[in-house]
Specification:
By secondary structure, this protein is an alpha+beta fold.
């Protein structure tokens, strides 16, 4: 049924009767193909050890966008060299009148190391306080990190796994777990006969139907009882809900 609410038959559409749900088949195949090791991926990146530690701690590789900026704390900016450089590029140099100004001179590092370290520590404390009271000052720091952002490479690595899982799940569904197959007629109905009593799943595998402006798929449990005809209608109500997007 399309989202407008008017019933509309799906013609010539394959439907499979399986002895196990396609969702469970896919999960079992996925278990044989573990996710790439993010920590191992991070270890190979050409970035500072501090940034590697931050990415591992947050289980995160993306260095751009609002979600990334929101994850970065004032302490992170001071601890990770890449973050500090990116933040200072956006805020230092007189871009903000009230941004902290250093009270030390580069020459102090050799002339009076103790004084230099004290003033440097005071300056970094002042920057931390400024970030805490002006969180919007982090905005835009990700632009400087664009060249170091490894999230695209990570996404490609993760993406290589999905097609193989899908291929093997479909292959198993159509062989090991296939009980019967039908195709809908002009009225959008399909018939499966001589099915032994038991619990099965009516599935369209990974194929979505075209029904108005929606693309539903199904993986519906059905129980066949002895001496009875079992009828089930596939509609928006029992369709697989699309996953919510996430980062």
């Amino acid at each position: 049924m399309p989202s407008g609410g008017l019933e509309e038959p799906v013609r010539g559409f394959p439907v499979y009767l399986l002895s196990k749900s396609f969702e469970q088949i896919s999960k079992e195949v996925a278990a044989a193909y573990p996710q790439p090791d993010m920590d191992a991926f991070i270890d190979k990146l050409d970035v500072s050890n501090e940034l590697k530690a931050w990415m591992k701690k947050n289980h995160w590789t993306q260095l751009s966008g609002d979600d990334f900026v929101g994850k970065v704390t004032p302490a992170d900016i001071l601890a990770v060299p890449e973050f500090y450089t990116a933040y200072m590029d956006r805020n230092a140099g007189g871009r903000s009148v009230d941004f902290p100004k250093p009270k030390y001179k580069p020459s102090d590092e050799k002339k009076d190391p103790a004084k230099y370290q004290r003033l440097l520590s005071d300056y970094r404390d002042a920057i931390k306080h400024y970030i805490e009271t002006n969180p919007q000052s982090k905005d835009g720091m990700d632009l400087t990190l664009a060249e170091k952002d490894p999230s695209t490479k990570w996404a490609i690595l993760v993406g290589k796994r999905e097609p193989e899982i899908q291929r093997q799940a479909i292959e198993l569904a159509q062989s090991k777990y296939l009980v019967a197959r039908t195709e809908t007629n002009l009225e959008g109905e399909g018939l499966l006969s001589r099915i032994q009593p038991g619990t099965y799943w009516l599935s369209t595998l990974d194929v979505a139907a075209t029904v108005g402006d929606v693309r539903p798929r199904w993986d519906v449990p059905v129980t066949v009882k002895p001496g009875e005809t079992t009828r089930i209608a596939l509609s928006n109500v029992n369709a697989i809900q699309p996953p919510h997007s996430s980062l």
